[in-house]
Amino acid sequence: MEPLDIANKIREKFPLDVADITGFRDQVFVSVKAERITDMCRYLYEDPDVSMNFLADLCGVDYPDRKFRFEVIYNLYSIKHNHRIILKALIPEDNPTVDSVVPIWNGANWHEREACDMYGIIFNGHPDLRRILMPDDWEGFPLRKDYPLKGKEGAEYRGFEELKELHTHDKEWNIS
């Protein structure tokens, strides 16, 4: 089955929840309402003709000037049928939440934690939604486009001085 055929099956099954279908270089992207993402993912997982049994990747994206500032991208693949589709859950800035797909693909666990840690997107129903990359006391979400490039003034993390000491020879060793 071709990716566009899969996208049309999604639109047929969830006609009010598909915002857009686009393609680029043999890849098809289906933009959907975040409220129905788990229903769509479960459908794609359970439908024997589609059988999306592998979540290849899940990540967050920040578009600060859009109505739906955030997207969660689900790169789905069928090992059985050797086809793929990419879903984009559209998420507003004022309520950056979406339901977890960990009950469908357990491998989504760490991907969702990373998107939460870096973008502040909350995954409802996630079994252990705590920081995975940043220290527990870190403030803010570093991959948001409005995050200060140098961090907050005077808010360096605890190990900063030790890290600076480790890099004292960078110029001497021509590392930059």
Considering the chains and any ligands shown, give keywords for the structure.
176 residues, alpha/beta, Beta Polymerase, domain 2, five-stranded mixed β-sheet, two-stranded parallel sheet, 4 helices, 23% helix, 27% strand, elongated
Describe, in plain words, how this protein is organized in 3D.
With 176 residues, the chain is an alpha/beta fold. The chain has a single domain (3-166), classed as NADH:ubiquinone oxidoreductase Nqo5 subunit (Beta Polymerase, domain 2). It is 23% helix and 27% strand. The protein contains 4 helices and 7 strands. The strands form 2 sheets. Strands 1-2-5-4-3 form a 5-stranded mixed β-sheet, covered by helices on one side. It has a two-stranded parallel sheet with strand order 6-7. β6 (97-99), α3 (108-119) and β7 (122-124) form a beta-alpha-beta unit. The longest helix is centred in the middle third of the chain and has 12 residues, at 108-119. The N and C termini lie far apart (48 Å).
Average pLDDT confidence is: 91
The CATH C-level class name: Alpha Beta
Rounded to the nearest angstrom, the radius of gyration is 19 Å
Low-confidence stretches: none
The residue fraction in helices comes out at 10-25%
Which term fits the overall shape? elongated
Mind telling me which CATH architecture this is?
A: 2-Layer Sandwich
CATH level-3 fold name: Beta Polymerase, domain 2
Specify the CATH homologous superfamily: NADH:ubiquinone oxidoreductase Nqo5 subunit
